[in-house]
């Protein structure tokens, strides 16, 4: 098919492939990145193409931290792709907050283009990895953790934003007899406060779009909404927006 | 550097052997024929060869202990040390060189083994580790000023304790007034007298001042050439590798010769292509082997000025010498005091017609990280984007190549979006 383009986002935890045709998302695939980022991009793309019934796209752009491992395409940073993909879904978007597995980003957007951004430092706080570690410390799966946090009540606060210290603080809260659901809620609040710091660094703008794997976590969306004072826009498939942006950029050039 | 396994297993013995050899000054005279051969092979060396030859000569003098070795913090004037007949040794600059040689892990581990916290600045930890291992040259005197960062004074006090050598501290107020300049000068008068007591000779300022004056003029020429002709040094950021010529060799012919070569190079350099982003580089950069240069080049970023290679002080103009030295020390507040530094950076961005500023902050460095948000806000008001890269200049364990690449690529893309 002449106009079919692909975007592949090789993230630290998951890899997304999106097929676009005429400015619309027509196919996608999502796979775990694992330890072979050089192969996983190809795997995700092949899966998306197979489901769509095509053999190869006309053009492709790769993004994400593993983009240079996939040598057979152009590369664009995930900041630019995220801005493009989110703006396509929400044309009035002025800010994109992307919370991924290993990092979080806040992007200021004008007319679909990134004009400023801030990323977390090398600390894992405010990322999906932080949530996984805290769920593990509570002895529950991430899925159970989300459900727990949904039932939690205010009153417990996790003051540390360092993943190592937060784990120790969490264990102290358990030992102090605090309820797991209230602790889970406190963890979500800690992530939201960390992300708010990044948002303030760039300067809060509305409409705000929340993307990345963590955007599927209702507890985080609730906690961030409480911090923001409004509910962010969340795409139906928040893990695909970056790859979608890459596919749209491929179509342009 | 890979050693055979039987040596690696006996690392402690190896370190002791190396330390033993490095503390035998006579051995370093063996380098002389090699230096002669280098000079014979390249009588008119390019910048890189000149720098190699000058470094070798310096190390020979330093470890050969041809004159008293005087340690110094970055903003204590090197001219003072040259006037005192000493060989200057800037441990913070030397730590950068150690990292560039890939030897930082050993030094950091050695400092860590004696409970020097990893939260401390790695420049200081490396110098501490190599002092504990007796691999740095033993100081006869140490000089330090209070105005580089809060860690400098305790670091130099620790060094004085490890080496059991006299330390002369200069308290430098952050703001310039006639009273504060007089206060700094009085301390230098006292230190001059004490230095004379140790070396047995008065300070001889004529030559260091002449060379310092000439070097200052050349540094000004360099800034002008890079500004007016849109010239730059490639690869971007390379000029920071030449830090010794802007600090410890100032006041000697070595700096003058080096800067003359750099000015010649700048006259011939190409203009910055219009599609490139012109950036001013703030603070320093990672010195261990890394891909930063390639990343900048691939992202179309050209570095048109570096904060740490500017002639920040006023050249000596015949005034009373210790009064001038005091003013030079106080002029370094332009790097260290937030209001002065931010104003100077904005001025530099305007003068160089740069598009953006980039700063690689140092883990544990309150000087750069502490004022980061103030700087970011001030630059944004002036319409200049700032990219802050959080990392460590010397400790490779804090480095993530892909994290760095993502930030640089994304920054270049956002700046280009605003340029168009």
Verbal overview:
The complex is a heterodimer of chains A (253) and B (420). With 253 residues, chain A is of the alpha/beta class. Chain A has 8 helices and 9 strands. Chain A has 2 domains: 92 residues, Nucleotidyltransferase, domain 5; 142 residues, ATPase, nucleotide binding domain (Nucleotidyltransferase, domain 5), CATH 3.30.420.40. In chain A, 43% of the residues lie in helices and 21% in strands. In chain A, helix 6 packs across helix 7. The longest helix of chain A is centred in the C-terminal third of the chain and has 23 residues. The mean pLDDT of chain A is 89. Chain B is 55% helix and 10% strand. Chain B has a 4-stranded parallel sheet with strand order 2-1-3-4, sandwiched between helices. The radius of gyration of chain B is 21 Å and the shape is globular. The model of chain B has no long low-confidence stretch (mean pLDDT 91). At the A-B interface, helix 2 and strand 8 of A face helix 20 of B.
Placed side by side, the strands forming the largest sheet of chain B appear as: 2-1-3-4
Pairing-aware structural class of the strands and helices of chain A? alpha/beta
CA gyration radius of chain A, whole angstroms: 18 Å
How much of the residues of chain A is beta strand, in percent? 15-25%
What is the overall shape of chain A? globular
The CATH architecture category of the largest domain in chain A equals 2-Layer Sandwich
Radius of gyration of chain B: 21 Å
Mean pLDDT of chain B: 91
Indicate the proportion of strand residues of chain B.
5-15%
E-strand count of chain A = 9
The low-confidence runs of chain B, each spanning 5 or more residues with pLDDT under 50, are: none
**Largest sheet of chain B at a glance?**
4 strands, parallel
Helix content of chain A: 40-55%
Spatial separation of the terminal alpha carbons of chain B: 46 Å
Compute the number of helices of chain B. 20
Q: Going by CATH, what is the homologous superfamily of the largest domain in chain A?
A: ATPase, nucleotide binding domain
